Amino acid sequence: MRRKVAGVSVAEINGEGVRLRALRTGDLDDLASGYADPVTERFLPQKPDAEGDDAWVIADHATDRLLGGIALQRAGRHAGLLFWIGPWARHRGAATAAVRAVTGWAFDTGFTRLELLVQWENSLAQRVAMAAGYQPEGVRRGAQPGGNDDLLPFARLPGDPPGPTPRLLPDLPGGELTDGVVCLRPLNAGDIDFYTELHAVQDVIDTSVPPERPTPAQIRRRCTSAEAHWLAGTRADLVITDAATGAPTGTIGLFYQEPRTGQAMIGYSQLPAWRGRGYATRAAQLLSLWVFAETNVARLIAGTLPTNTGSQRVLEKAGFTREGYMRSRLPGGHGQRRDDVQFVLLPEDVLSRAADA
Questions:
Q1: Are the C-beta atoms of 127 and 121 separated by less than 8 Å?
Q2: Does residue 147 carry a pLDDT above 80?
Q3: Gap between the Cα atoms of 285 and 90, Å rounded
Q4: Distance (Å, whole) CA 332 – CA 307
Q5: CA distance 339 to 139
Q6: Order of strands across the sheet with 78-85?
Q7: Residue 3: its pLDDT value, please?
Q8: What is the model's pLDDT at position 103?
């Protein structure tokens, strides 16, 4: 059905719990509030024309109150998709329902490709895109309008499978892993100061790849983009915290470098004040249990410098087996190369350890 409102003709589309319709006079206060919201301003600085031919109000199906907006930007039979949700309507599934509804309508009317461009830090929009079946397609460099920031493209074609896009790395159950002594939780933007402190420790710098102290910009990007990497399935960055106090003690990361072969790698660092308590070993054990239970990883590897006997003991206590010695594998700074001692953990190793416990 098409309805003429305020001089604009739009298709009215019904979705799960939402109705997509034309803007009405009674929507103007909510529209102004939504556009003025700091989150909308930050992630959608250029607002679509709310009364355009390919723009809809997202309204509650029961009350008809404006919840947000969604629009298509046509480029032939392709289109970009923009959406926003007011702060009074977030975390209710309205955005996902609206994106699904517009996507179905667009393909029914002849579009052959739809795309969402999302900022690294806008993890909620990334989740909406994947829940609506859009697939991540890498990084579009310098694509942010009016700036030089990169954007993450998510796209959907008519022949793509229905339903949410499968994830290589699911969310942690309850948002964390714990054994009662340590907790692992996802790294986030609130960890910038802690991450800066950790990566100012000289032996943490020395064992990094490459062995360099990260810049403030690199640290900020690492913390603020951590969830985006997790959603894309490339990396899971976690903070190791003391379960009793919540104090951050170190980090541990899963790097899903070879999804086709089922191989991933872990790496970890610890503040000096928290070393010697077995926290890194516990963290490696917790992470490996989750990896083998919840992902398709079949082989977990880790590497240490030949001189880093403390890290080698951590891996051995966590059940890893020394597997090899790789000469000149890692960059060492100043044009030098460094050797790497390789360790591996398999699912059967975890089962064996559990049986012996």
A1: no
A2: no
A3: 36
A4: 14
A5: 32
A6: 13-14, 18-21, 55-60, 66-75, 78-85, 113-119, 151-156, 135-136
A7: 40
A8: 97
Beta bridge partners of 49: none
How far apart are alpha carbons 4 and 10 in whole angstroms? 7
Q: What is the tens place of the pLDDT at every residue in 283-299? A: 999 999 999 999 999 99
Interval 184-213: pLDDT, tens:
999 999 999 999 999 999 999 999 988 999
CB 68 within 8 A of CB 98: yes
* Residue 35 scores a pLDDT above 90: yes
Burial degree of 280 (CB within 10 A; 0-12, 13-18, 19+): buried
Query: Which candidate, 19, 34, 116, places its Cα nearest to that of 73?
Result: 116
Domains, the chain, with CATH or none: 2-156 (3.40.630.30), 173-356 (3.40.630.30)
The pTM is what? 0.92
CA 135 to CA 74: how far, in whole Å?
19
- Strands 263-270 and 248-258, by their bridges, are antiparallel
CB 282 within 8 A of CB 182: yes
